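Revision sheet: structure tokens.
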Amino acid sequence: MLKEIATFFNSSQATALVAFFVTVIVAGFKLVKPYIQHKIDTEKNVHTKQALELGLSFANVIVPEMAVMKGLSKSDRKKEGIRFVNNHLKKNGWNLDFQTISGLVEKAYQAYKLTGADNHAPIESPAADDTPTVQATPTSDGAKVTATPSSTAKQGDQDAK
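Predicted:
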């Protein structure tokens, strides 16, 4: 059997047939390779898109929770949000870099701010000069007294009814 195979490959027709198959395989690979590469790139893009969508979902969950924690500074809240998103992505088998996760948390925070639920806005208190002081004159006969701001109050202003 081995002798017959060797005889077959020694003939010129067999050599031409082998050369033809090698050429077809190489040409086929050259034609199919771009399609295979495109499919691989598409799968990578889909995989990355799914990871980003899941990461943004996790960020949308944690941002409102972190926003109400008054004991943490803004940077601590962001770090905790990044840590939360990273841990949950890794639990689900996804791996994104720090800058991407940071961007997802920031995007979720900006969306949260647009809802008007952000408690980071500074609390505005009136200035010391803007606080009105009230002056009222007591009466001994039990009459009702109207209080007026001290800037407009005059000695003896009262409403007796």
